[in-house]
Amino acid sequence: MSFAETLAPPAPAEAMAKVRAALAAKPDGVIEAVAREHGVSTLAVLEVTPEEQRRFIAAERFEALWRELATWGTVLFIVHTPDIVLECEGSLPFGSFGHGYYNIHGDSPIGGHIKAGNCRAIYLVDRQFHGRRSCSVQFFNGAGEAMFKVFVRRDAARELLPDQVARFEALKRDFA
After folding, report:
1. Domain that holds residue 21
2. Considering the domain boundaries, does residue 2 fall inside one?
């Protein structure tokens, strides 16, 4: 049983066969688009990508992982819903728990209140995206949908920042 199946009823086998075929045809496609097209959760799609492309982190590590990400400098923060892909570059402020939220405020365009208790899984995702390596930390809710993602940034030549790649690799060692 996959982790996604522990959150929600398993996706129909027929739908998952179509997901596998879609990923085989376009292995660097957008996970959310494949999920929507086949009526399954984003996490269900992620979990059928090759194992070397994803590493699970228990949701209980949310705060420790956030605190580590807050030391990375400017990152790319993405919220991807059916209606918008919101991208924001900034540093992740250190946060604290209060009133049912993980509250983040600071000198950054990234701020607000995260229902960290809704986080059920975290994945380190290292896969091709439109032909280029992409590294992200993705936080999933109980429905198997991404709450938000934190990406390693790119430089002016569209190459991943080496310092952040090294930090991402360290997360694989220290958290997964």
Report:
1. 10-49
2. no
Give me the residues paired with residue 122 across strands. 57, 139
Helix (H, G, I), strand (E, B) or coil at 138: strand
Q: Please state the φ and ψ torsions of residue 74, each to the nearest 5 degrees.
A: -70, 125
Domain identity same for 28 and 68: no
How far is it, in rounded angstroms, from Cα 165 to Cα 71?
13
In a domain, 109, yes or no: yes
Number of other residues whose CB lies within 10 A of the CB of residue 108: 17
User: Which pTM does this prediction carry?
Assistant: 0.92
CATH code assigned at 127: 3.40.1570.10
What is the distance between the alpha carbons of residues 131 and 27, in angstroms, rounded to a whole number?
A: 9
* Neighbouring-strand partners of residue 129: 132
Same domain flag for 95 and 164: yes
- Of 30, 48, 7, 15, the C-alpha closest to 145 is 7
The residue-averaged pLDDT of 88-97 equals 96
**pLDDT reported for residue 7:** 63
Share of the chain above pLDDT 90, in %: 86
